[in-house]
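Subject: for your reference before the review

Hello V.,

The reviewers asked for a structural picture of the protein, and I figured it would be easier to keep everything in one thread rather than splitting it across files. Below is the amino acid sequence we used in the manuscript, unchanged from the supplementary table.
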Amino acid sequence: MDGKRRISLVIPVYNESANLPALFVALRDAAATVDGDVEFLFVDDGSGDDSLARLEAFAAEEPRAKVVGLARNFGKEIAVTAGIRHATGDACLTMDADLQHPPAMIGAFVDAWRGGAEVVVGVR
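And here is what came back from the structure prediction:
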């Protein structure tokens, strides 16, 4: 890589099948604004719907995507921790799959981190 560092987007997912198509579009759009490599790391937290199947289908067509499937619902904190453990980036950015956190803000968070911030937090 040319000095740019990789960012891992860690996204816990629980029964978000209906939101995933919009999330995939928003993530691709946001990643296009980031100068450097972006990894999408989804953690399915034992969803009872077809979230895991949709995530796996997306990962099959999107080389930047990885999916971790948990055997049952462990809760958001465990899902985020599992994602961070599987991340390959130099930094992790966590966001919810329900689009509560606007993916359009990813570029601003990455810019703040690359500008020297050790921690970047968004509040709405």
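For the response letter, the relevant points are probably these. The mean pLDDT is 94. The chain has four helices and four strands.

Happy to draft the paragraph if you're swamped.

O.
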